[in-house]
Amino acid sequence: MGISHGLAFAASFHEMNFDCGLATGSLLSANVGSLPIVDGEIEVKRIEPNFEGIEVSPERYKWWQDRLMKTWELIA
User: Fold this and answer.
1) Does position 59 have pLDDT exceeding 60, yes or no?
2) Torsion-angle region of residue 44: left (phi > 0), alpha (psi -120 to 50) or beta?
3) Euclidean distance between CA atoms 47 and 68, whole angstroms
4) What is d(CA 46, CA 24) in angstroms, rounded to the nearest whole number?
């Protein structure tokens, strides 16, 4: 989901002389959205997440929830 916003931001520049670090999600084991890279380009569009097949244990879910809350406390 984050790539769609990062992609829109990067596309807003008239001239781009640096790498944006987009599509790093392909390094993960699964993706919740489909934005195919064609000839080194990604279409700028909103995507709908698909969480099918992405299950985690209740313990892992709690771990991520706690991590997000701690991060929020640091930046808020």
Assistant:
1) yes
2) beta
3) 23
4) 18
- Report CA 51 to chain centroid distance, whole Å: 13
| Residue ranges in the chain assigned as alpha helix (H) | 2-11, 58-75
Report the domain count for the chain.
1
Confidence at residue 63, expressed as pLDDT on a 0 to 100 scale: 94
Residue type, 9: F
- Look at residues 64, 44, 45, 66 and name the one whose alpha carbon lies nearest to residue 55: 64
pLDDT digits (tens, 9 = 90+) for 2-38: 677 888 888 888 887 877 777 666 666 677 777 778 8
Q: Which two three-digit tokens encode residue 29?
A: 């084991």
Confirm if 35 and 42 have CB atoms less than 8 A apart: yes
User: What range does the domain containing 13 cover?
Assistant: 2-75
